[in-house]
Write a structure and sequence with these properties.
Elements (H helix, E strand, L loop, with lengths): L6 H17 L2 H7 L8 H9 L18 H14 L5 H15 L2 H12 L5 E4 L15 E5 L2 E12 L6 E8 L7 E7 L5 E6 L7 E12 L3 E2 L5 H37 L1 E2 L2 E2 L4 H29 L5 H26 L10 H13 L4 H11 L3
Parallel strand pairs: 1-4, 2-4
Antiparallel strand pairs: 2-3, 3-7, 4-5, 5-8, 6-7, 9-10
Helix pairs in contact: 1-4, 4-7, 5-6, 5-7, 7-8, 7-9, 7-10, 8-9, 9-10, 9-11
């Protein structure tokens, strides 16, 4: 088990770091989060030109054919810079599911445009807002002749309002054992409604209502009744991707805080010389390093297709709560200045809470860890 980056992965990390430092800033973030789209179309095109969208897509479909581990340093830099975009939804989950289970015709139709940033695909699974489980899926797909009729509601669908297609996981009454099936839904289809959900996250989420949406049989993804098997296989990529964003954010918050305690003076000396402040920074550094280690362990196993349900949940439970602890300590060290709208730290504090809860909070993932350990 070697977590050190390869030369190619270091190149991806350096490219992402350079891009974020030169092309992106918190000032741009302030503008983007007020925009209806919730992301910068110009920057979306630029990262597509860098090839990031096609990293998990095979070369024969217009991608690069990299491993998931190759993508992780880029996700880390996105989290560090707070870069909102449909990247996770489309280039990771959308591309991964289509590559894994879609028909050859569907792959040829969608994967190259996804790699080029011309088509955005998102994923609609959760309905309760707190966890993803096969048992909680109530959206139904009823067979009607050679087609399906989709009825139900999905919660917290990322960037659904700007997506061209939604991969929807629904309970299929025509499948044996009332299993679940994945459907490719055109967001322009009659009966599809995307309702924005107000959050303090930098990402955009929607409540998506499917009201009698007709789905052609050719838009079934994978085998009928086996939708959850595909989701379960791809879920580690989704959770670990969020953990990588957390790791990047953690490192940035620590950097901001260390610089602050060097510059801020009280009683004629930098506040970083006070032992209590040093203890705070040490606690933050421990959370940063442990989160990085446990996340890269889960990322490596995910990339190598090694069973890692326990490790993924360990990473999410630990790093999610560590992000909350670190940002809270950072605010305490900064004092009143840290809470102001003009200062950058509050963006990280709010994003920390969002990432902690999204795709399962600490209690949810600790329960999975306990189950995997036989308790």
């Amino acid at each position: 088990m070697d977590f050190s980056l390869s030369e190619e992965q270091k190149m991806f990390k350096d490219t992402a770091e350079t891009f974020m430092s030169k092309e992106w800033s918190i000032e741009l973030l302030r503008k983007v989060i007020k925009d209806e789209k919730g992301y910068s179309v110009d920057h979306w095109k630029k990262i597509a030109d860098l090839g990031w969208m096609g990293m998990l897509i095979d070369e024969r479909y217009g991608g690069i054919g990299c491993s998931f581990m190759d993508l992780c340093p880029i996700l880390e830099e996105m989290g560090r810079a707070l870069f909102p975009s449909p990247f996770l939804a489309s280039a990771i989950m959308g591309a991964s599911i289509l590559s894994e289970a879609a028909s050859e015709e569907m792959k040829e139709k969608l994967l190259a445009p996804i790699a080029g940033g011309d088509v955005v695909v998102t994923l609609a699974v959760g309905e309760t807002g707190d966890n993803w489980s096969k048992d909680t899926i109530a959206t139904k797909a009823e067979k009607n002749g050679g087609n399906y009729v989709l009825k139900g509601t999905k919660m917290f669908v990322p960037f659904a309002h700007v997506s061209d297609y939604i991969i929807c996981c629904a309970k299929d009454e025509s499948a044996s054992g009332n299993g679940t099936t994945l459907f490719l839904v055109d967001t322009r289809a009659k009966g599809v409604e995307c309702i924005p959900i107000p959050t303090f996250s930098i990402d955009r989420y929607s409540k998506v209502v499917f009201d009698g949406v007709t789905i052609l049989e050719e838009n079934v993804i994978g085998k009928v009744g086996s939708g959850w098997d595909v989701i379960e296989k791809m879920l580690p990529r989704l959770v670990v991707s969020k953990c990588m964003e957390i790791v990047g954010g953690l490192q940035k918050v620590l950097e901001i805080t260390v610089q602050w305690v060097k510059d801020r003076e009280q009683f004629g000396v930098p506040i970083g010389s006070f032992q209590a402040i040093q203890h705070y920074c040490a606690e933050m550094a421990v959370d940063v390093e442990t989160s990085k280690f446990i996340t890269y362990q889960a990322a490596w196993k995910t990339s190598e297709n090694i069973p890692c349900k326990k490790e993924v949940s360990m990473a999410k439970a630990w790093s999610g709560e560590a992000y909350q602890r670190v940002t809270a300590l950072a605010l305490q060290v900064h004092g009143a200045m840290g809470f102001t709208e003009e200062y950058d730290l509050h963006f990280y504090y709010k994003q920390a809470k969002s990432l902690q809860l999204m795709y399962g909070g600490g209690a949810y993932h600790r329960k999975i860890v306990a189950q995997e350990m036989g308790y």
